[in-house]
Amino acid sequence: MAEISTKPYLIRALYEWCSDSGLTPQLLVAVDARTRVPPGYVKDGQIVLNIGAAATRNLTLDNDWIQFSARFGGVSHEIAIPVDRVAAIFARENGQGMHFEPTEAPGPEQTPPPAPGEPPAPPKGRPSLKVVK
């Protein structure tokens, strides 16, 4: 049986602690090809995201992905972050939180789940036609 990571549980616990304490929960994310964030806000391969209730819509913190909608420069974006790419969760006001070592996903490259109302990504490679008789 594969060992279940404690990381998503710790992220959820610290998110709740920040919210209950009136603090602003923030994520430090190591961006990779699977991470869906606005590229113009990535600096040195990392991005800091405010995941507080006032800054996000439809926030989900599950065991594999963190997803939400947020506005950047007045434009709404669908954000999808693999939990294994979270480098830290902390309170903006006092810096208290927890740091993690971002890891690469084991196995085949995973793609972020499609955002609600977003069409699935087209297949990669050359297009081909199949003749059916």
TrEMBL record:
Coiled-coil residue windows: none
Region (Disordered): 94-133
Gene Ontology biological-process entries: proteolysis
GO molecular function: peptidase activity
Sequence ranges of Pro residues compositional bias: 109-125
SUPFAM superfamilies: SspB-like
InterPro entries, A to Z: SspB (IPR007481), SspB-like_sf (IPR036760)
Superkingdom: Bacteria
Keywords: Hydrolase, Protease
Protein name (Swiss-Prot/TrEMBL): ClpXP protease specificity-enhancing factor
Organism: Thiobacillus sedimenti
